[in-house]
Amino acid sequence: MNVTQNSERVRVGTQGEMPEGFQTAVDMDGISVLVVNYEGRFYALRNNCTHQDYPLLGGEVSMGRITCQKHGAKFELATGKAKSLPAVKPVRLFRTEIEDGVVYVSAL
Ligand code: FES
């Protein structure tokens, strides 16, 4: 996906390119950030499970939570909180914004 960056935020793509259920990852200052369209809202969190070093991208999303594919930990998209073992620590959250139909992420 085409990513351009300025000092504050990273362009993810247009809303039209990212329908409900869509997931992608963008690089933000060397950190991989997962962006998910869940029920029409965009959520962004660090693309890294806090149990072990494993990407969350591609995990199943339901009930507002994404499941790590490695051992099944679940994280709440809205808060980053770990909701299921074996993870206990939260995942870092990022802010999403939509401007003129374009989705951006920035640090919280
Ligand atoms: S690495 Fe994600 S649950 Fe173990």
Automatic annotation (TrEMBL):
Q: Which keywords does this Swiss-Prot/TrEMBL entry list?
A: 2Fe-2S, Dioxygenase, Iron, Iron-sulfur, Metal-binding, Oxidoreductase
Q: Which GO terms describe its molecular function?
A: 2 iron, 2 sulfur cluster binding; dioxygenase activity; metal ion binding
Q: InterPro entries attached here? A: Rieske_2Fe-2S, Rieske_2Fe-2S_sf
- What Pfam families does the record point to? Rieske (PF00355)
Residue spans making up a coiled coil are none
Q: Which residues form the Rieske domain?
A: 9-105
Q: By what name is this protein known?
A: 3-phenylpropionate/trans-cinnamate dioxygenase ferredoxin subunit
